[in-house]
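for the writeup, i need someone to sanity check this before i put it in the appendix. the sequnce is what the collaborator sent (i think, or maybe the updated version? ugh). structure was predicted straight from it, no edits. if anything looks off just tell me and ill rerun, i have time this weekend
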Amino acid sequence: MKYRNVGKSGLKVSEIALGSWMTDLSGSSRVEVAEQTIRLAYEKGVNFFDCADAYSGGEAERFLGRVLRDYRRSSYVVSSKVFFPTGAGANERGLSRKHIFENIDRSLKNLNMAYIDLYYCHRFDPTTPMEETLRALSDLVAQGKILYYGVSEEWGGARLEEAQRIIERYGLYPMTSVQPQYHMMDRYIEHEIMAVCEKYGIGVTPFSPLAQGLLTGKYKKGQPLPEGSRATHQADRQINCLLTDENLRRVEALTAVAGELGLTMPVLALAWILRKDIVSSVITGASKPSQLENNLAASGVTIPADALRDIDAILGFKPFERHVG
């Protein structure tokens, strides 16, 4: 396993992280598999575990904390998030100082930890002044309840610039990371966000790197959905919206590129994200140890320049540029 710094900070995380968004805790057998997956990740060198207060109503945090307590706290990095409702009250949501301060204590209790390494704003809150949110996060760093903080993709390039101005004006602790969706089929952060992060030394920790499973290569054009796959049961149907004929054609072509390099499609997709130095770690999901094993193989893989050109040709991506005249 290879490790990278998160932006310009001294925090080092594994190139492959394990996320808790899709962790299935509905039943003892699934809980056992989820625990096996976390333990295997740790044994294989994964030191970054991503979670959120909203995942499974707090149970994901409690589960992760129970498993990780068997290991030295200094040996792993845990992230969690704040924004979504934790109750019915008007102040039990968002990014107000009140909710952030109350929610960090809730997450620390759930995880049974003295501090959280990296604390994210799960969304942007237009009802709270940005200065209030950033001051609250900086104060949590000063208190030692969190070590670093970051934000989600919804903050965008302009908001990140505004946040930086506030941080510099008031001498706040710096923003360390941005967690956006980023994969071969969705490269919007290359338009603006990635450049802003490079400018200020903010690390990028993408989620959904396999496009909800599209980039695993298991979905085939003209064939039935694989039994038990996410497309057969996911409530929000995100993966189903991605299963267009054009996307499936692209994945077929990308799979051929992977084969020529002696890689699986998932490894190619993850290594492609890691081609960017500003990417600190890729947050992957795994419902069983075998999926995790496949993902881990992407760490340290370098894709040749000619293959990268072939991939760009297949994807047909063009960074947005506005030309006048």
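The domain at 3-209+265-301 is CATH 3.20.20.100 (TIM Barrel). The chain has eleven helices and ten strands.
thx in advance!!
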